[in-house]
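--- STAGE predict ---
source: upstream dedup step, 1 unique chain passed
mode: sequence only
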Amino acid sequence: MLLYYITDRRQLPGDETTRRRALLDKIAEAASCGVDFIQLREKDLAGGELESLARDAIQLIRECHGNQQTPRTRLLINSRVDVAIACGADGVHLRSNDISTKDVRHIWRSAENSNGSSPLMSVSCHTTAQVARAASDGADLVVFAPVFDKRDMPQTVPTGLQALRDACGHKIPVLALGGVTVDNARSCIAEGAAGIAGIRLFQEQEIAETVRRLQAISFSTKTTNQH
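--- STAGE serialize ---
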């Protein structure tokens, strides 16, 4: 099961300095617990502030992984390709109406400090048609949402598990997002999701326990399917 933590420091208590420190602590905790992807989604920050935060996050991730050249946990910057390149992030997360993944790869490879590398790219999708397009365009993974009702957005209509199943029929890893909890994650995996994404799922709970329980669900689901 792939685990994908989406950050939002505005949901954390305190002033800006306190929230920033708390967010970096959460990022370090996620990396140390083996979360696969961290999407830095601080959309209200200016480019310079976001880059500074991203650089601190990258340093923490590397320290958690013993300063490995390629840590297991990958940091993706929300939409800002320029910031991702400048700070040395692993890639970007694109909204469904952002520039295409092909354009991102071209920009990335043309950057002076890219060393010809290719970015990891995830894409937000809300319909199966968007999933198909993301797969066709060469995205690495899709975050499909909202699968369930969201407590902070009761007016939003969830896609439901059937739509998630249809999305997972395309040749690209699909991660379930939106109202996903440890309790209902099993149903997402059963429908074919490659993993689970969340904000509150990780930020509001002890990440180590959340990861342990999700991994247990993944193991039991795979064992059941094998039989």
